[in-house]
Amino acid sequence: MQTLFVMDPLEKIHVDGDSTYMLMLEGQRRDHGIWFCTPSGLFLKNGEGWATAERVLVNAKAPHFEKKEVLTRSLGAFDVVWMRKDPPFDMDYILSTYLLDRASSQTLVVNHPTGLKLFNEKIWAMTFPDLHPPTLLSCDMEQIGDFVRAQPERAVLKPWDGNGGRGVLVTSAQDRNLGSMIELLTQNGRDYVIAQPYLKGADDGDKRILLFNGEPVGAVLRVPGKTDFRGNMHVGASVESCDLSPRDVEICQTLGPQLKKYGQIFVGIDVIDGYLTEINITSPTGIREINRLNSVRLEADLVDVVESCLSQHRETL
Q1: Which one is catalytic: 111, 163, 280, 291?
Q2: Residues 104, 14: one domain?
Q3: Would you say residue 96 has pLDDT above 90?
Q4: Closest by alpha carbon to 115, among 274, 284, 1?
Q5: Domain range holding 186?
Q6: CB contact at 8 A, 39 and 15
Q7: Is 12 an annotated catalytic residue?
Q8: What pLDDT, on a 0 to 100 scale, did the predictor assign at position 233?
């Protein structure tokens, strides 16, 4: 099997917490050909998707990546192409999905570019009102202020296109900085902002649940540190093992058929206090944390799933 990973430069990868590295290492164990390129390595020639890619040997110990030959190949030369470029989901990312659309019908792209284009990670979650907290998405500063002032307690404001906790703020009707916050986040009414009530359970943690081809396979609780309310590990949150609650199972059962329909094979959802807050499809993480806490090898399970999906995909052609 020949596998291409479209991703950030190898020099930027922190292997201790990187899911893409684990997938590459698992492929190496199975004698897959492992190739990588950045999104700028993708291009179209006569309407067909191509890539200038490097073959890589992946190691469990340093040096983790050994670059070998560089070749220009049709995307059809690869059995599987993983789209693992980290956010932001900007116009460059969208262009990459158009290029991946032009891969050969024999090639399986994970996650499928159609779903990546259709579904913004935060906005798609809003289409499930029974699962999602009350939410306002607006660039109208007065609307946002009214929403915050209508909350009995605190509220959260965050950029609609943010990632990694960037720009997430907690405020309230009594906050004398509220007006300034709204001005800054919306750039005086030019940029859209998401406003939500602050969920009480957020102090206990933000649950990341991984789904492989629509089925939940593991979860981890990200607990905010004492100096930052955000449940992101790079700002001090810790991780704890956790089980799926009946509400978590309900959320997964609702999302599962939609994820499978649109070819979203590797997905991480975020659940706070029983509410779905995000559906991470662009480059979800969490494999290494769940592995450490539960003594499992989710990367092997995921590659099994992808190999099965590839076989099914080719049978339908």
Answers
A1: 280
A2: yes
A3: yes
A4: 284
A5: 136-198
A6: no
A7: no
A8: 58
